Amino acid sequence: MRNAFLVILSLTIVAFLSGLSNALVWDDVLLIAQNQTLQHPIDWGSIFLQHLWAGTPNFDATQGGYYRPLVIASFAIDRTLFGESFFFYHLHSLGWHLINLLLLHLWLRLKLQNPFAHALALGLFAFHPLQIESIAFLSARNDIMACTGMLGMLLCFEKTDTRSHLFGGLFLLFGLLSKESVLLSPLLLIGYLYLEKQSLPQKYHWWSIGSAFAIYAAMRWFAGVSFPPSETSLWSVFLPSVLIYASRLVVSTQLLPGTHVLWLSWHEWIYGFIGILLVLLMSIREKRTSATALLIFFLGLFPALSAISSTGLSADRYLYLPLVGIALLLGKTLDGIQRVFLVRSVSAFFIGLWLVQTIQTLPAWKSDLSLFATSLQARENPYRAGAYAKILEQAGKLDTAAFWYERATQPPLPYRHSCYNVTQIHLLREDPTSAIRVGEAALEAGCEPSAELLSPLALAHASQGNWKRAEDLVRNQTRDPRGHIKLLRLVFQARKRNWNTLQETFQRLSVKERDMLIRNIDWLLQRGGDLDSQQWLYSKLSVSD
Prior knowledge:
Layout: H1 2-16, H2 28-33, H3 44-47, H4 69-82, H5 86-108, H6 115-127, H7 132-136, H8 141-156, H9 162-176, H10 185-197, H11 203-223, H12 234-250, H13 266-285, H14 287-301, H15 304-311, H16 322-335, H17 340-361, H18 368-378, H19 382-394, H20 398-408, H21 416-419, H22 424-428, H23 432-445, H24 451-463, H25 467-474, H26 484-495, H27 499-507, H28 511-527, H29 531-544
């Protein structure tokens, strides 16, 4: 068993070595580079008294009850020791993964006898392509650290001495402070002890678990972070998520982010059902161990359904902890086969296959642009198109971004977040005609008539002299996220010759703000062809001055 572990450990380092030079991707920029909590001098105490996203731009405390101080603390350690050298940040994440590999090895050697079955189970967890996202994506370190807590707890509770149970409680607390996915650990422990040892948790189990949860709840309370709200639509994403993950376990070629429950391909449907069938077949041989493995899988996956329900994304990182259950199931299946040559051949084949696929896929994570460009080449869906468009917009490539935003808002299921940007991008390009064409098409395609979509669309209509359509679009809007609606309503007042309303608005502003607003009103009246209202405004301003 020791040799099997050392081989898999070495191959894991080889598999992820090239990813250590990767840049920040996806949410890494917000959570790490732009996080004020991580700026010097770091206030270490405040890390344990705030929401996960508290230090990031545009933080909204109402979006999710995320309390993960140990993850932010780990990034603070990275920032303190290594500054902006992200090579060491990636090395840090890989280090946690290798710790989990060691803990899994120590736990599986209590369950498996065949070293090749043991090696295959470790290989699945270590470098199956599903694990790339958890390791290459720094913000997914919370999944890795939470798994450390869960594996450590299971390993400690295999023993009956007081010291082991104390450490089991500490591991559980560590996992809870890393991610909410460990909240169902009491159910996992009850099921595990009943299935594996035909017993129920004893008082020392409950003391350890209760103490960990009490400390965790008190820390959340002091930090003012409420528990995550319950979602009523969890079960609506359960089957699509299971199908996606089952298909990715079976066919692991070039796994990349952006798999959305609304846009399942025939690939996910067919291979997903094949994957579910294979799991059921593996479950036949060792019913008790299979039940334990499936319990770990589903209790590890269930907390992620809330995030999947909210965003629609079945992210690979959500399967990091559940893969412990699949590794146990796969290892136990091969452990019961008496044909040594068959077990060796199957183990060597899949270990080699996963290693090669991971090494081939990892370069796509070099940057956001390469990540989503490669994702789109693999298979286009509205989410991937919209994510790529946003990255292109941030890179200043507005023309290409506009193309992909339009692709992301095609019927019958346009991507909601791209609906917010599909008209605004054309205003940034100074192309109101295209903004009108694309914005109206997005509404017909099923985009929500949100203020983010309607306000730039109304501004584009107004700039082309379509005043009635512009007024209709903003008439019932109560939000103004882009500031366009305030400008439009003042222009409408100018067209109605309502000087009192304009004057009251001007008086509340500083001289600099007033002059800027007047220039914008003047510009829009001129672009919209209402020269009479423009002259009227000039005359009123000259009199008031």
